[in-house]
Amino acid sequence: MAPRRTINGFSNPTVKFLRSLRDKKHRRRERKFLAEGLRLLTDARESDVLPEILVMSSGRAPHPLLAELEDAVAAAGGEILEMDEDILAKVTGKENPQAVAGVFAEFDTRLARIDRSTSPIWLVAQALRDPGNLGTMLRTGDAVGAGGLILIDDCADPFSVEAVRASMGAIFTQRLASARWEEFIEWLREGPGQLVAASLRDPTDYRMAPYQAPCFLLVGNESQGLPDTYEAQCDLRVTIPMRGRADSLNAAVAGAVLAYEALARLSD
Amino acid sequence: MAPRRTINGFSNPTVKFLRSLRDKKHRRRERKFLAEGLRLLTDARESDVLPEILVMSSGRAPHPLLAELEDAVAAAGGEILEMDEDILAKVTGKENPQAVAGVFAEFDTRLARIDRSTSPIWLVAQALRDPGNLGTMLRTGDAVGAGGLILIDDCADPFSVEAVRASMGAIFTQRLASARWEEFIEWLREGPGQLVAASLRDPTDYRMAPYQAPCFLLVGNESQGLPDTYEAQCDLRVTIPMRGRADSLNAAVAGAVLAYEALARLSD
């Protein structure tokens, strides 16, 4: 069995460190993030990602997947901590915390790490502000077999607890990159790739558009949509019909409707 | 100009009443809910729904739509309150509150109020727990021209601040009903209507399914999906393909992907 360290007090420096990872400023400095739940941690392990620190509630029920995870973390030289549920609740900020959480090193989010040939679909979000939407886009990306999510300009932090939670593990299975618009366009034009904007203005119906792989589906900010100048640089602008009073969809919903259309059409 | 009452203190009973509407227990008792922002309130007015109480920040900028709203509320015998931004922030629970909010009477959510002939698409959610997902489904419903959203069993409160906010005004344009499963099935079978389950098990691809209007698209709980016995009572079970490691989509995303497919196919 792997060696464990038991944490007894709320004021323990390790507890303070773990709690600080819920705060963006500290995450940025440490370049580490927190993910909760056996399922997420198992998804991570199956994607060959192990936590540097594994945190377990002392009152947890035994589970074979947790035992395997513990062994894997120990074998990789990681740290294993045990603490009471009420201390773990302080760490994760949830009243009924999951029995296990992990501290992971942030991924390298440079565009150069993206190999566009690995998937016919890539999701791209510009100035996406809501971490729940961001996590949901990762989850949708996984579902459509996308390669990953590229974040343009100032987006919500993909390593926040909310985004990681909403991704339902897809943070570990999808590639993640972050870039300014100019940098992204330069990278994109170095190889094959069709850039498709979810437009609120263009008359092209999203069901009639000629999608081509690798297809980069771009969704804009929750309240502003995409800047005109960005849309103009896209290869295709498509519109999802709006039959009601509203003029737009939730950004993650718009991304999903486009992604499933592209998936179906590219599979024909 | 409409008569106004100015509220000066945090401890004013009206402020306490307004704040209490953020709490489900109080909302239930009062059968009233809070909606924020000029845009939402304008959506409401254009749907012939006026707030019983209109709350405005004393530091607001003048706006023609706000002036019209004020007149309409006064003409309907409603109350108009003015308060400092910091008091309004306490009411809405947001640091930078919108300059205007309204207190509305909850709608009648009995199934009997639904006229299924008014739309080819209806969204149905079972045991939906997340108010953001619920509001997003209302918003999507508006976008596809659905008639409304029917909530089955124990769902999140559609009148919570989070759900109202996520609906982006669709809480006022979509019909809303709430019922137990048995009650819903009995009502449904009294007239025409195809009940379509978003299934995680059935092999029928959602793009191949024979949708028929009025089409009731049913999505299940965020973590459990639909109970088997419910799926069995549906006319059609359809599956959205999952190409990755995850076995499900976000519930609001699944509803939207189905709704847009049904919209396109029923419009053919």
From TrEMBL, chains A, B:
Keywords of this entry: Methyltransferase, Transferase
InterPro entries referenced in this protein's UniProt entry, alphabetically: Alpha/beta_knot_MTases, MRM3-like_sub_bind, Ribosomal_eL30-like_sf, rRNA_Methyltransferase, SpoU_MeTrfase, SpoU_subst-bd, tRNA_m1G_MTases_N
Residues annotated as domain RNA 2-O ribose methyltransferase substrate binding: 34-110
Taxonomy, superkingdom: Bacteria
Sequence intervals crossing the membrane: none
PANTHER family associated with the record: RRNA METHYLTRANSFERASE 3 (PTHR43191), RRNA METHYLTRANSFERASE 3, MITOCHONDRIAL (PTHR43191:SF2)
Record-given protein name: RNA methyltransferase
Native source species: Novosphingobium kalidii
